[in-house]
From TrEMBL, chains A, B:
Matching PANTHER family: RSBT ANTAGONIST PROTEIN RSBS, RSBT ANTAGONIST PROTEIN RSBS-RELATED
Transmembrane segments: none
Protein's name according to its UniProt entry: STAS domain-containing protein
Domain of life assignment: Bacteria
UniProt cross-references to InterPro entries, sorted A to Z: Bact_StressResp_Reg, STAS_dom, STAS_dom_sf
Species the sequence originates in: Candidatus Abyssobacteria bacterium SURF_17
Record Gene3D superfamilies: STAS domain
The STAS domain, residue ranges: 2-113
Length: 129, 129
């Protein structure tokens, strides 16, 4: 597989990562995601990692980069579906997911994204005249 | 990867198939999907195949089986993101996707699923007393 698909759902984009990341795939995903955020004017990105048995420091960095990049393009990112074993390994390895929001599953994640985006829209809204 | 993840989004389930199907994986996916449809009472299933370069007769049969199974469990299935080359190959191979609904992308698919489910709810609604 040369590309990880990005699905558009309403205001949001959904990325389901099912294979271990390597350099080329990660780079392609970041490029595709940046392009899609701009093209679709998405306000949020949901990244599902429920298929991953292992999140190493490389993958953690990629997730962090995507989050930072999406934020620059005015979209919030949420990582969902982390397995308990993955969380334990991340802590043991001392890998931090600083700046990365997480939620238990896709549905909760979507609700949280909706709430965050609604909150931002409210605080960014121009004063009524 | 031993499992293809199934994401719940509102009334619907989303399955993103990113790897070529083999017997074991296909069987696991069918089991998981049936279980999730019942557990979540999902009314529709969206299957994204935009990552697939090839849909052979085996994969086509699996898609057909999943559609039929979901229908028995009272859920509609929609296949989205088929690549042009895949459609051409299916026709050349003489593989039919009978009974399988398709849509161009995930967003259109979701809208179509919403419409189908709303239509069904209407026609199934008990007469008002």
């Amino acid at each position: 597989m040369e590309r990880i698909p990005i699905l558009k759902m309403g205001k949001f984009l959904i990325v389901s990562i099912q294979v271990d990341m390597h350099d080329e795939l990660a780079l392609a995903l970041q490029e595709d995601l940046a392009e899609q955020i701009v093209k679709t004017r998405a306000k949020g990105v949901l990244i599902d990692i429920s298929s991953l048995n292992l999140v190493d420091s490389f993958t953690a960095r990629i997730l962090g980069n995507m989050t930072a990049m999406a934020r620059l393009l005015d979209a919030e990112t949420l990582v969902v579906g982390m397995r308990p074993a993955v969380a334990m390994t991340l802590v043991e390895l001392g890998v931090s997911l600083r700046g990365i929001r997480t939620a238990g599953n896709a549905e909760k994640g979507m609700a949280l994204l909706e709430a965050i985006v609604a909150q931002q829209a409210k605080s960014n809204a121009p004063k009524s005249t």
